[in-house]
Amino acid sequence: MNEVASQYVEYHAKGHFPFGNLTFIHHDMFSGSCKEITTIAAAVELLVLSYDIFDDLEDKDNDEPPWMKDDEKALNIATGFIFAALSGIQSIKVCKRDEIIKKYCKHALIAINGQHVDLTNNVDNESNYIEIMKQKSGTLTALACILGVLAAGQDKDISLIEDYATNIGIAAQIRNDLKDVLRLDRNKSKENFSHIIFVRTSRSNV
Question: How many CA atoms lie within 13 A of 171 on its CB side?
Fold first, then answer.
């Protein structure tokens, strides 16, 4: 199991850990000196990786990742990543440890709900689409930023930080969805709102 999990992490590392980097950036923005910031950033990336695995296995729209060949085994490993991340966070000794754990659990559950709603493939208007993106990518991006601030021992302007971080996550997801629309090998079984708009625009220009 450890060997396969390591392969998943190595593949995930090709993305250069943007969520963990957000944790570091926000820790430094508030002049943090937490010696365990790397553990917190790693926990964030493990959580994101687990959701990437769930998302790919459920949507079946991306055959490239190694976990797409493992099915049930990949589900077990993804679940293990979630608890490994939580275990790492529970081991830290920063003053706001309890708040960090609460934020981790809260945002993890919101992201799971967003993925569940997305699976219904019932995105027929812009507001529904944005709400799903908010719960999925927006929530995880916000978590990465908030944990960096809390690790620095601060809790000032958390709501403001969560708002702009959520919007960054939504924007990133829209960009990814647009890339999926333009992929020639795109799986046709699942559509997102970007695809709907693309099709409508194309038809209107005919």
Answer: 7
